[in-house]
Amino acid sequence: MQGYPGATPHLDYRLGMPKPFFEYYVTLMPQAAVEHRVHLGDGGSFLVDPPPETRVWPRQQPSCAVTENGVELGMFGRTVRGPLGWVVHARSGDKGSDANVGFWVRFRDEWDWLRTLLSAEMVKELLGEEYNGKDIDRFELPSANAVHFLLHDHLDRGVSSTSSYDFLGKNVAEFLRSRHVDMPVKFLDRGKL
């Protein structure tokens, strides 16, 4: 019953034997082409009309490789080298062949530090040999004190076809939280996570 955070044993041990598999890919379909049906607990169901107005969002959302109006990292005082996870929470997972990972902190001054520290280049550096050379999109969520990253093609071709041990991308967050950075002592004085 022991393991390490983020470890996910494969969903189906039968996949150890060669056989055909399905590969996931994202596509867009018009709402009118999909039958919208509600299924009830008593076995009944009914159709629901698709929304009369929809919006097509751009495939590539605006990404910012570094924060705007970052702060001077030295302003937080003395630092010690230690795991990012001493003060930063994170969660990751698969999105087809991509992995996403979000980082968040408890306090606003930690957020200023986090958003300045975690650029797309810094995530590449923290990934080290795990970085595959593909694009990394970066998004800030200020109301949640969070920075989110999308690691393109980090999982080969997705869950059913990757040769990676971390086929669901659940390990990415814990791996990055274990990487060492210069950590402000004033944050550590509040207590480690």
- With strands numbered from the N-terminus, the spatial order across the biggest sheet is 4-5-7-6
Unreliable sequence segments: none
Q: For the record, give the distance between the C-alpha atoms at the N and C termini, rounded to a whole number.
A: 23 Å
- Specify the overall morphology: globular
Taking all residues together, what is the mean pLDDT? 86
What is the helix fraction of residues, given as a range? 10-25%
Strand percentage lies at: 15-25%
What is the β-strand count? 8
Order of helices and strands: EEEEEHHEEHEH
The biggest beta sheet, please?
A: 4 strands, antiparallel
* Rg, alpha carbons: 21 Å
Number of helices: 4
Oligomeric description of these chains: single chain
Structural class: alpha+beta
Pfam family, one: AtuA_ferredoxin
InterPro entries: AtuA-like_ferredoxin_dom (IPR056362)
Domain AtuA-like ferredoxin-fold: 84-181
Protein name: AtuA-like ferredoxin-fold domain-containing protein
